Amino acid sequence: MIDFGPFYSQIASGPLAPWLETLPAQIGAWQRESLHGQFSQWLKAVDGLPALRPDRLDLLHSVTARSAQPLSDGQKLGIERLLRNLMPWRKGPFSLYGVDIDTEWRSDWKWQRVLPHLSDLSGRTVLDVGCGSGYHLWRMIGAGAHLAVGIDPTQLFLCQFEAVRKLLGNDQRAHLLPLGIEQMPTLNAFDTVFSMGVLYHRRSPLDHLWQLKNQLVSEGELVLETLVVEGDENQVLVPGERYAAMRNVWFIPSARAVKLWLEKCGFVDVRIADQSITTTEEQRATDWMRTESLADFLDPQDSTRTREGYPAPMRALLIARKP
């Protein structure tokens, strides 16, 4: 079983300490009652990995671990086989001792778009909501964050994160907890909060923005990345049963509408930092994620539309401050 004790100890004497009033009981209930049917199989893959400590670790430009003495072909094959037991890999990529995990998303491209617009992460405590496999947590550490905490209820992602962490020398600067934002108490304790690719999955998007605000310190920074459509501050797309084959897409506002929502929730200095079309080079099927991907979700006759007839995915990045 995954041991969250080191994280509890790490936060016991800092601004996150009040979280310990609820978190251990939540994690305990999750371990007793809510484990996925394949969780033990995924955990077995994590346990089978060698506990390596990299001689060269690059989290600034990528998530890359190397050893001074290259692993044998047999060692690399063994690691790759175990990591493939954790497929599909959606967020990455990772390069671990010569094993390259080519994930569905080029999450490094998103990070390159986001990083220039952030306040300096040096020494900051950060929260990444809906963090997936935790790829961006490691990049946040590479950018200088003191502690990066991710939350995501998807248990496969937790096992992927723990697998990578084990191969990074059991690095304790980043942690992933199997929770949703609605399970977090009001902490007012994080210097920067990231919500990337989450807002459109929320049935009540303004409640989500309030939940994010409740985690920030005064003067803390929110980094919000989400699907958007073209239009003025009143433009919001409400898809039918599916959008780009996804079932749980509730609202896709314009970037100007998101800015208005943030201001309505009390954020200040709100700015639209970036807006870009998602390409089939950034999101695609790979040998590590073999099911359908973005190219399959677009209209084969018109790549500017989804197969349901909606505008193709476009994403905006907004930066805001909690006063």
Describe the structure.
Keywords: Transferase, tRNA processing. Carboxy-S-adenosyl-L-methionine binds at residues 91, 105, 110, 130, 152-154, 181-182, 196, 200, 315. This is tRNA U34 carboxymethyltransferase. The protein has helices spanning 5-11, 23-33, 39-48, 73-84, 107-114, 135-142, 155-167, 205-213, 255-264, 294-297, and strands at residues 56-58, 64-66, 91-92, 94-96, 99-101, 105-106, 125-129, 147-151, 174-177, 190-196, 216-228, 236-237, 252-253, 268-277, 298-299, 302-306, 314-321. It has 323 residues and is α/β, with parallel strands linked by helices. The protein has one domain (36-322): Vaccinia Virus protein VP39 (Rossmann fold), CATH 3.40.50.150. Strands 9-8-7-10-11-17-14 form a seven-stranded mixed beta sheet, with helices on both faces. A four-stranded mixed beta sheet has the order 1-2-4-5, covered by helices on one side. A hairpin with a 2-residue loop joins strand 15 and strand 16 (302-306). The longest helix is centred in the middle third of the chain and has 13 residues, at 155-167. The relative contact order is 0.13. The mean pLDDT is 97.
Number of strands: 17
- CATH evolutionary superfamily: Vaccinia Virus protein VP39
The main β sheet shows up as: 7 strands, mixed
- The chain-level structural class is alpha/beta
The gross shape turns out to be globular
Number of helices: 10
Describe, in short, the structure shown.
Belongs to the class I-like SAM-binding methyltransferase superfamily. CmoB family. The protein has 10 helices and 17 strands.
